[in-house]
Design goal:
This protein is an alpha/beta fold. The chain has helices at about 5-15, 50-70, 95-105, 125-135, and strands spanning about 20-30, 75-80, 80-85, 120, 140-145. It is elongated.
């Protein structure tokens, strides 16, 4: 089992043992895999193609199961490509690579036909969405996307 899944299970087990009322789980857009339609909503098919996405989907399943068995409120939030101040310049993401080429006055590289899209979400929106999910009453294994405004 992936370390992330073990960690999530251990946090949820500790929540049960300590009678914690609510657990918020930070998940990811990676649970969806390749998008079948846009914008991606919470009903979009889940088909992760990387171990990271599969592990996060397993964490969401743990959360809803813990709610069903033990009655603990759980809520999962799926973050979409977070960016903001102090964004990791060593990151391998498309945004960092693109911006580094612009700043370095280098030719921009476009892979494929250029029609690919990513939904970047500013860190303040991530924080606000996370707090709203945490404050919501009676979360019963709910899952919410926290994403930018993709049209």
């Amino acid at each position: 089992m992936e370390d992330g899944a073990i960690g999530t299970f251990n946090v949820l087990r500790a929540a049960v043992e300590n009678k914690i009322r609510k657990v918020l789980y930070a998940s990811t857009v990676a649970v969806y895999g390749r998008q079948e339609y846009l914008p991606i909503d919470e009903k979009h098919p889940k088909n992760p193609f990387l171990p990271y996405g599969a592990t996060k989907l397993l964490g969401e399943l743990y959360c809803s199961t813990i709610h069903n068995v033990f009655g603990i409120d759980t809520v999962s939030v799926r973050y979409f490509n977070v960016y903001g101040p102090r964004y990791a310049t060593f990151d391998h993401s498309a945004m960092v690579n693109f911006l580094n080429r612009v700043v370095g006055n280098k030719e921009l590289l476009i892979y494929g036909d250029g029609s690919q899209v990513r939904d970047y979400t500013y860190i303040d929106d991530i924080v606000n969405g996370t707090l709203l999910a945490l404050k919501k009453d009676n979360t019963i294994g709910d899952v919410y996307n926290i994403a930018g405004a993709m049209e």
